[in-house]
Specification:
CATH class of one domain: Alpha Beta
Strand content: 25-35%
Number of strands: 26
Shape: globular
CATH architecture of one domain: 3-Layer(aba) Sandwich
Strand order of the largest sheet: 2-1-10-9-11-12-13
Mean pLDDT: 90
Distance between the termini: 53 Å
CATH topology of one domain: Rossmann fold
Number of helices: 15
Radius of gyration: 23 Å
Low-confidence stretches: none
Length: 498
């Protein structure tokens, strides 16, 4: 087994169909597969062997994809790093993973040169030891993809969630192949589809859900370097995009557009990831566009775990478990709870990671017995086995002895017409232990009046859940994938925000 076989199959059946389009440049499946094979041959000539760790640290591009699949074809492991890492962050991850070689963008060269002593043998980028074009031009014309055991590591993706030191998640060839299949199946993807991707390939959403699932179904990836409102709308309107992937922030911004409906072109499918999407946003999008925003449940350590169905979609739920994945709701002692009861979501299946790279202690603490992974998310099942995410375990606010789940408060805030984005956190407080605090970004041209917001929430929430402080901000801090960084909000005293 090798994850790269998915590319080879699509190239076999649809050699002349477009695989990737970027800035007007198109590579067919035959071209993408041939280039990946040449990269694999070139890397092997440089001494790369199955199991070696080879890193990528560059923005999304057809070249990134070529190198990624080239690494996989050799049987080596692709260590995918964010292109926006600072010098210190990059150094920490290189020291931790110790890849033999790295494909990088030119702006990373100076930082990488200082890491030669960490075991880096080759830096592949303009100005480095060699360029990607050199590998393509000097490699043999073909390369037989190396077969790997299904449980061998295919890629390492770094994650810190929203707290702590990032950890290297080891995902297997079998797990990533199954994940790609599940996405393609539930989205009814075909070779006729054109999927827009501006989410970074180092992230599980961009790499597996968008890129690998599209390659498996032989669709075309329409690449953008990042989210740009006008470029996105232009591509939707004129480019034949049928599948759109984004994070909640993007959907919220698009809903503020008066011309949204007429600019969607051939769009048939929308998906949201990285953070929970407020039900009110799903309802507004459906009313205006006629398209349901689909959601699933997953994390870097395993995805998708559930899928909200293409047909019997339930707003507010993340759907039912995918084939081959078991889910339990457990209490803090590990006891399995009944339907309707809230507890930690625990999952087991082939899509779950094999562990954290070079971190046995973190791996051990992430699992209960018999391979049950502890997600750190609080959820519950309804009577039809649809899963609902209540909140992140670490985001739970204990105020005056009462448990407050921020997501419930945020859902209520999103029903107010003046609220564009919001985040609810617990701020340390001498009296309450933690004070429920709402950070709100207002919609353009509208004003957020804290007392009016408080009165509106009192009609929807129990008194202890209603925020005591309301901080109006111009922007909320976000990760490169668009997830609101609540830990950053907690660092800023309410008196100094805004």
């Amino acid at each position: 087994m090798n994850l790269a076989h998915n590319l080879e199959r699509s190239a076999y059946f649809f050699p002349h169909r477009p695989a990737v389009s970027q800035d007007g440049r198109v590579l067919t499946y035959a071209e993408l597969n041939d280039r990946a094979a040449k990269i694999a041959a070139g890397l092997t000539k440089l001494g790369v062997r199955p199991g070696d760790l080879i890193a990528l640290c560059a923005p999304n591009s057809a070249e990134w994809m070529t190198f990624y699949f080239g690494v996989l074809k050799t049987g080596a492991v692709a260590v995918t790093l964010s292109a926006v890492l600072t010098g210190d962050e990059l150094a920490n991850l290189i020291r931790h993973s110790r890849p033999r070689m790295i494909y990088a963008s030119p702006e990373k060269l100076a930082d990488l040169e200082r890491l030669r002593s960490e075991g880096l043998e080759k830096i592949i980028c303009p100005g480095g030891d060699l360029e990607l074009t050199t590998l393509l031009e000097t490699a043999p014309p073909s390369f037989p993809t190396v077969d790997r055991d299904p449980e061998d590591t295919a890629a390492v993706l770094y994650t810190g969630g929203t707290t702590g030191t990032p950890k290297g998640v080891m995902l297997t060839h079998e797990g990533m192949s199954l994940s790609s299949y599940h996405v393609a199946h539930f989205e009814r993807s075909t070779e006729e589809d054109r999927a827009m991707c501006f989410m970074p390939f180092n992230h599980v959403f961009g790499q597996i859900h968008i890129m690998n699932a599209t390659i498996l179904s032989a669709g075309c990836l329409e690449l953008l370097p990042s989210f740009d409102m006008e470029r996105v709308l232009e591509a939707l309107e004129n480019g034949g995009v049928t599948r759109f992937y984004a994070v909640p922030t993007v959907y919220i911004r698009l809903l503020a557009r008066g011309d949204l409906e007429r600019r969607l072109g051939k769009l048939r499918y929308c998906f949201s990831a990285a953070a929970s999407l407020a039900g009110e946003v799903v309802r507004q999008w459906k009313e205006r566009t006629g398209i349901t925003i689909a959601e699933s449940y997953g994390m870097t350590e395993g995805m998708p775990i559930t899928y909200n169905h293409y047909y019997r979609h339930r707003v507010g739920s993340v759907g039912q478990s995918v084939l081959g994945v078991d889910i339990q709701i457990r209490d803090k002692e590990g006891r399995v709870l009944k339907k309707g009861e809230e507890g930690e979501i625990c999952v087991r299946g082939r899509v779950v990671m094999k562990g954290y790279l070079n971190n046995w202690e973190a791996t051990r603490s992430a699992f209960w017995e018999k391979g049950w992974y502890r997600s750190g998310d609080i959820g519950r099942f309804d009577q039809d086995d649809y899963l609902y995410i209540v909140d992140r375990l670490k985001d739970l606010i204990i105020s005056g002895g009462e448990n407050v789940y921020p997501r419930e408060v945020e859902e209520a805030l999103y029903t107010l017409p003046e609220v564009e984005e919001c985040a609810v956190v617990g701020i340390p407080d001498r009296e309450w232990g933690e004070k429920v605090t709402a950070y709100i970004k207002p919609k353009a041209g509208m004003t957020v009046r804290p007392e009016a917001v408080k009165q509106a929430l009192k009609a929807r929430l129990s008194p202890f859940k209603v925020p005591k402080d309301y901080i109006v901000v111009n922007e909320l801090p976000k990760s490169p994938t668009g997830k609101i960084l609540k830990r950053e909000l907690k660092k800023v005293p309410p008196s100094s925000a805004g």
